[in-house]
Design goal:
This protein has four helices and six strands, in the order E-E-H-E-E-E-H-H-H-E. By secondary structure, it is of the alpha+beta class. The strands form two sheets. A three-stranded antiparallel β-sheet has the order 2-1-5. Helices cover 24% and strands 24% of the residues.
Length: 180
């Protein structure tokens, strides 16, 4: 997420296959194995984030060193909010959580973004309680409720708050054999 005293969020475009019209973090990196600089775990995710934030948000002034690796999560989310047989799309991913604290200018890609919104920490807590006013992606809800406020409160100490763990938020949880 692009963070200053407020956090930048956007509404996913209605034509997105998964989780259309939901609010989420500024960008997801989605590293590609076909791009050499994106093949290595954390450094690959950071390089991919630079590419994706340009594609999705038109942000061109973020460098590798601007990006803080915080942690990794595994989560499952079914698009449409259900896990039943009527769910066509969903995600079960390992995500690197990255934060950039920088003033940037952006021009959102309308194929990716329906709207942008800056939200204060206090406002975010209230909005997460109102799914009708502020429907969010499953990964953002997990991060916001379990980790984001601690990072936000200590935005100038991000390096000290990062960890090399994989936090599991899978539903149902993965068994030990599936984790390896």
């Amino acid at each position: 997420a692009v963070v200053s005293t407020q956090s930048g969020h956007y509404g996913r475009a209605p034509q997105k296959i998964t989780f259309p019209n939901l609010y989420t973090n500024t960008c997801c990196s989605h590293p590609l194995s076909t791009i050499p600089g994106e093949r290595d775990f954390t450094s690959g995710a950071k390089n991919a984030a630079i590419r994706r934030v340009k594609d999705e948000m038109g942000i061109t002034d973020i460098s590798y060193d601007d990006i803080h690796f915080m942690t990794r999560i595994i989560y499952f989310g079914a698009s449409g909010g259900t896990c039943g047989s009527d769910t066509t799309w969903g995600e079960h991913e390992l995500d690197h959580v990255l934060i950039v604290k920088k003033d940037v200018e952006f021009v959102p890609n309308p194929n990716e973004v329906s709207e942008t919104r800056y939200i204060s920490r206090g406002e975010l807590e209230g909005l997460l309680e109102d799914e009708e006013e502020f429907p969010v992606t499953p990964w953002f809800r997990i991060i916001a409720r379990s980790m984001l406020t601690g990072w936000w409160d200590n935005i100038d100490m991000l390096q000290e708050l990062s960890d090399d763990k994989i936090h599991e938020f899978s539903f149902p949880p993965l068994d030990e054999e599936s984790k390896h």
